[in-house]
Design goal:
Number of domains: 2
CATH topology of the largest domain: Rossmann fold
Order of helices and strands: HHEHHEHEHHEHHHHEHHEH
Protein name: Alpha/beta hydrolase
Shape: globular
Number of strands: 6
Organism: Marinibactrum halimedae
Number of helices: 14
Structural class: alpha/beta
Radius of gyration: 25 Å
Strand order of the largest sheet: 2-1-3-4-5-6
Strand content: 5-15%
CATH class of the largest domain: Alpha Beta
CATH superfamily of the largest domain: Alpha/Beta hydrolase fold, catalytic domain
InterPro entries: AB_hydrolase_fold (IPR029058)
CATH architecture of the largest domain: 3-Layer(aba) Sandwich
Length: about 325
């Protein structure tokens, strides 16, 4: 049982204990009333009232002890970023990452790795519809009542579409009701200037194809002005907009390191670090090489900035944040 589950259980137990103590106090008060030699009518009325009160408290205790969380069936869903994925377990996240994180589950088989066409708009059937179908099927198949969703990059935007639009699809409320939280790793919540660069057709198109795609609808949506428009109309969770119905917390990548003399530069693959180091030159000082920190922190709340928790305060590039680099997998595992 993980630390977070233990803490939640302990909190629930304390609430139950408080209710029980209150009920016990009522019973003791009833005994005092009954044994006193005051007016008989007062004794009867108070006794009946106290018994009713005690029965009500007992009912609350029963409900508390049998609350859904105490008996929660915890599961986790991994949601990839931009791209048309058919094997995200191996190609996007890697088995090392997924199996390390799911080690924190009470039942390590309760997970799903989503494979959808995230080259499309978040609200399309190929993207948002596919995500809703796969997650809701997982919830129903495994009877999941306590779902943690882990997203990366554009996957956070697609998930936010579902959370922001419960009436769009009958499966959206099923997902919302079962979800404890969404951990959005490096989400493109406010878009990225690099999407504008790709759409403009300049030299970034060749450099970014491996991670972003080529002028796809998803890339269009991740342009900063597009995201500003849709954040104000279709999506919740950003400044000035209604809050999301579940916790949406981001992990923010702040830098890219590509020194060939630093072994940490090789976590996840050195070539990716070099490419992201190049693209970082056209972004703010605080970025993971693909998405600026302000965009990653633009929706929901910030769980943490990489260097505040990672091993040796190492930054997580946009590629490393989907790999078991610098104890990222440990933080995710302990949060289940």
């Amino acid at each position: 049982m993980t630390l977070s589950v233990i803490l939640h259980f302990f909190s629930t137990f304390l609430r139950c204990l408080k209710t029980f103590v209150s009920a016990l106090t009522s019973v003791l008060a009833a005994i005092q009333v009954v044994t006193s030699q005051k007016f008989a009518l007062q004794k009867v009325v108070l006794q009946k009232a106290t018994v009713i009160h005690w029965l009500w408290k007992g009912l609350l205790v029963s409900i508390c002890i049998s609350s859904p969380f105490v008996n929660a069936n915890t599961g986790v869903a991994f949601v990839h970023g931009t791209g048309d994925s058919s094997d995200a377990l191996n190609d996007y996240w890697t088995r090392d990452m997924v199996f390390s994180v799911t080690g924190g589950l009470p039942d390590t088989s309760k997970f799903v790795v989503v494979n959808c066409n995230f080259d499309e708009y978040a609200w399309s059937n190929e993207a948002g519809g596919c995500l809703a179908r796969q997650i809701s099927s997982f919830i129903e198949r495994e009877s999941i009542s306590d779902l943690v969703v882990i997203t990366h990059s554009y996957g956070g935007t697609v998930m936010r579409w579902i959370l922001s639009n419960p009436t769009w699809d009958r499966r959206h409320p099923v997902i919302i009701n079962a979800t404890r939280s969404v951990t959005a790793i490096a989400p493109s919540s406010l878009g990225t200037p690099l999407a504008d660069a790709v759409i403009d057709g300049n030299r970034f198109e060749r450099v970014l194809g491996w991670i972003l795609g080529y002028r796809s609808p998803a890339v269009e949506l991740q342009q900063e002005d597009w995201m500003a428009h849709y954040n104000n109309t279709l999506f919740y969770g950003t400044a000035g907009r209604p809050a999301l119905p579940v916790t949406f917390k981001s992990i923010v990548g702040t830098d890219v390191e590509s020194s060939p003399f630093d072994s940490d530069s090789y976590c996840g693959g050195y070539a990716y670090q070099v490419a992201l180091e190049v693209t970082q030159e056209w972004l703010d000082n605080c970025s993971d090489g693909f998405i600026e920190c302000r965009s990653q922190a633009g929706a929901g709340t910030v769980w943490f900035y990489d260097v505040d928790r990672t091993r040796r305060r190492e930054p997580l590039s946009h590629h490393q944040s989907r790999r078991p680099c610098f104890n990222l997998d440990v933080f995710l595992r302990n949060d289940l």
